[in-house]
């Protein structure tokens, strides 16, 4: 079982002293006592009073009365013991009563807020536990169980907006996407499940599809399925009409004319196309036979007798692409978020070496990314540098996006997997960076990551630039001995300067 995690967004200690000369020393001492003795106390009481429970407290005010400066640590700890337990218990009981009387509405509202925040911004709200890899999946399953109507109305409403839909597909598994489809309509679930598995099986017998990254093909099939759900004539509940819209999306995205679809299906009727030699198994053959039966009729519906895409279908597809985004109250765009809480803030240490590093990986030429996918691959390599994760979730990557010039609102494109050669290049790069700072001596890659790269920080956008604040630790004194600075970060492809307070 994972240990419970408690997050405090801001803590404020207010001391009133009679002597101004003593104020600074008392302030420093109170801060040290709070970090070393009071925070563990808070953590202990939160775990004891509300185990395995989501509790959000806007404000908790404790008046500790008079404290003796000569025994400040002892007084603070004793009075926190006395006041914190009782006041925290009151707040928790009050929230539990409210949640019980409203049939769990607080937790449901929190899960809905969490999911909406991620799907609209790619980030997590400050109170979410980003170390839980199943956090968002658990939120979806909770909503599907407790309030399926809510998730349909408020979470799936904007799926015609491409960025939103891409993020939904990228992050969630096929099983969870099918559960969402079932919540919309059981018959659509049956259509979508059958067609998705059949189209995936088709990869083995369509030469043009074999070279596509699997994640890209998966994304576009799912987009076609969700697009099909949104069009009005699917309400007829005819499977062939559902198939028609999925085929139309794939044809539009991959540049397949409808005539090419017919050729593909005709070619696959050859026994050679489904032989063991090209990788089709029994399931693939069954899928192929189903598609050979269903898709020609869907294609005929689209193109008419001459096989060309009909004008109405082209117009409908264009309208789908331009469907207005549905705003959800209370959810800000990532660029408008007051603060983003990150766990890889130390990446800024690497900034002066990144242009050459990206060029060596083939992602950049003349300080320009070689294509639209390159910044996303660069962002993924940065996360591997920081944590050793080769396939990170998007919500861990706000700083990566900023460093790589990716708009925070854009979904992290994960149509690829980092290759072994790239991971080896990352390890060599970290060794070279460590060697550039003699003060680090022979520090290991793991030690460098844990000590300096995996640091918590707060990102905010202020007065036309990014600001990153990182809490300083005693061992950070060695950073002052590095032969380069990371107080101001501005790479040629970055839209805004990044200032660092460390």
Explain what you see.
There is one protein chain. The chain contains 19 helices and seven strands. The model is unreliable at 271-280 and 305-337 (pLDDT under 50). The chain starts with 19 loop residues before the first helix and ends with a strand. By secondary structure, it is mainly alpha-helical. It folds into three domains: 20-101, no CATH class; 198-321, no CATH class; 334-501, no CATH class. Strands 1-4-5-7-6 form a five-stranded mixed sheet. The chain has helices spanning 20-49, 72-101, 105-121, 135-146, 148-155, 162-171, 174-184, 186-202, 207-210, 214-230, 239-254, 258-267, 282-303, 311-321, 354-360, 374-387, 398-403, 420-436, 445-453, and strands at 340-342, 364-365, 368-369, 457-462, 465-470, 488-489, 498-501. Helices cover 53% and strands 5% of the residues.
Q: Main β-sheet: number of strands, strand sense, barrel status?
A: 5 strands, mixed
First-to-last CA distance: 34 Å
Summed up, the domain count is: 3
Q: State which percent range the strand residues make up.
A: under 5%
Q: Count up the helices.
A: 19
How do the helices and strands follow one another from N- to C-terminus? HHHHHHHHHHHHHHEHEEHHHHEEEE
The overall pLDDT, averaged over residues, is 82
Strand arrangement, major sheet:
1-4-5-7-6
Shape: flat
Unreliable residue stretches = 271-280, 305-337
| Helical content class | 40-55%
Alpha carbon gyration radius: 27 Å
Give me the count of strands: 7
Helix/sheet category = mainly alpha
């Amino acid at each position: 079982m994972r240990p419970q995690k408690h997050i405090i967004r801001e803590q404020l200690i207010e001391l009133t002293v009679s002597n101004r000369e003593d104020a600074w020393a008392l302030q420093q001492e109170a801060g040290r006592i709070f970090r070393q003795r009071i925070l563990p106390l808070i953590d202990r009481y939160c775990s004891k009073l509300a185990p395995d429970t989501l509790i959000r407290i806007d404000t908790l005010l404790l008046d500790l009365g008079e404290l003796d400066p000569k025994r400040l640590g002892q007084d603070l700890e004793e009075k926190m013991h006395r006041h914190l337990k009782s006041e925290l218990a009151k707040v928790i009981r009050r929230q539990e009563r409210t949640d019980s009387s409203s049939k769990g509405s607080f937790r449901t509202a929190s899960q809905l807020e969490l999911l909406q925040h991620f799907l609209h911004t790619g980030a997590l709200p400050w109170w979410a536990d980003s170390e839980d890899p199943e956090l968002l999946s658990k939120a979806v399953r909770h909503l599907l169980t407790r309030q399926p109507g809510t998730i349909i109305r408020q979470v799936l409403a904007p799926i015609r907006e491409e960025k939103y839909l891409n993020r939904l597909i990228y992050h969630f598994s096929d099983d969870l996407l099918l559960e969402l489809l079932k919540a919309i309509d059981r018959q659509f679930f049956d259509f979508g499940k059958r067609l998705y598995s059949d189209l995936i099986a088709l990869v083995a017998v369509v030469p043009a599809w074999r070279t596509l990254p699997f994640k890209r093909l998966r994304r576009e099939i799912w987009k076609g399925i969700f697009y099909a759900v949104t069009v009005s004539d699917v309400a007829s509940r005819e499977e062939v009409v559902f198939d028609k819209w999925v085929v139309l999306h794939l044809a539009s995205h991959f540049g397949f004319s409808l005539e090419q679809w017919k050729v593909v299906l005709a070619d696959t009727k050859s026994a050679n196309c489904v032989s063991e030699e090209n990788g089709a198994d029994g399931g693939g053959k069954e899928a192929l036979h189903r598609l050979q039966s269903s898709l020609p009729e869907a294609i005929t519906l689209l193109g008419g007798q001459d096989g060309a895409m009909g004008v109405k279908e082209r117009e409908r597809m264009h309208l789908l692409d331009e469907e207005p985004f549905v705003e959800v109250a209370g959810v800000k765009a990532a660029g408008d978020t007051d603060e983003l809480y990150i766990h890889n803030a130390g990446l800024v240490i690497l900034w002066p070496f990144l242009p050459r590093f990206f060029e060596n990986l083939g992602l950049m030429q003349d300080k320009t990314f070689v294509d639209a996918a390159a910044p996303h691959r660069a962002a993924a390599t940065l996360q591997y540098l920081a944590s050793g994760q080769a396939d990170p979730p998007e919500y861990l990557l706000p700083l990566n996006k900023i460093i790589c010039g990716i708009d925070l609102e854009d979904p992290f494109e994960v149509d690829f997997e980092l290759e072994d050669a790239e991971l080896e290049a990352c390890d060599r790069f970290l060794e070279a960076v460590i060697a550039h700072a003699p003060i680090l001596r022979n520090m290991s890659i793991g030690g460098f990551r844990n000590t300096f790269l995996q640091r918590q920080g707060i990102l905010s956008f202020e007065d036309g630039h990014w600001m990153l604040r990182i809490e300083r630790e005693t061992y950070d004194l060695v950073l002052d001995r590095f032969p380069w600075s990371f107080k101001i970060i501005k790479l040629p492809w970055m839209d805004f300067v990044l200032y660092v307070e460390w």
